[in-house]
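ok, trying the design again with the full structure, not the truncated one.
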């Protein structure tokens, strides 16, 4: 089950399973993901501010991978598309795309809070 593509609950169940059912550890992993997502979004905004398409690649790649790991499906897909375009050297409306990533990251945070409580 997903939240309209925002969050894949199956991925979260899998994370809980591979952590031996340790909910506190899962919450730590999710907190780490959220902090890292904030850092990657800051790097993306800095790249946009500097006008550097090349500087979008690494944070978009990192965000894509970490979002996929926690089941943030749409965030991963948006990041994948931005990474691909940045690797190709052509990113239309980079500021708008980064802000769309930020909006989706907020949706992920809210979805995680709704199901995990304190995350």
């Amino acid at each position: 089950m997903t939240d309209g593509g925002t969050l894949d609950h199956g991925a979260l169940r899998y994370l809980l399973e591979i952590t031996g059912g340790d909910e506190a550890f899962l919450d730590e992993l999710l907190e780490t993901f959220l902090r890292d997502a904030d850092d990657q979004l800051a790097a993306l905004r800095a790249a946009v501010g500097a006008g550097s398409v090349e500087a979008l690649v690494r944070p978009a790649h990192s965000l894509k991978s970490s979002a996929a790991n926690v089941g943030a499906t749409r965030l991963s897909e948006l990041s994948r598309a931005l990474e691909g375009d940045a690797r190709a050297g052509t990113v239309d409306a980079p500021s708008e795309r980064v802000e769309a990533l930020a909006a989706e990251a907020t949706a992920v945070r809210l979805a995680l809070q709704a199901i995990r409580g304190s995350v």
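Keeping the full-length input from now on. The first helix runs from residue 9 to 18.
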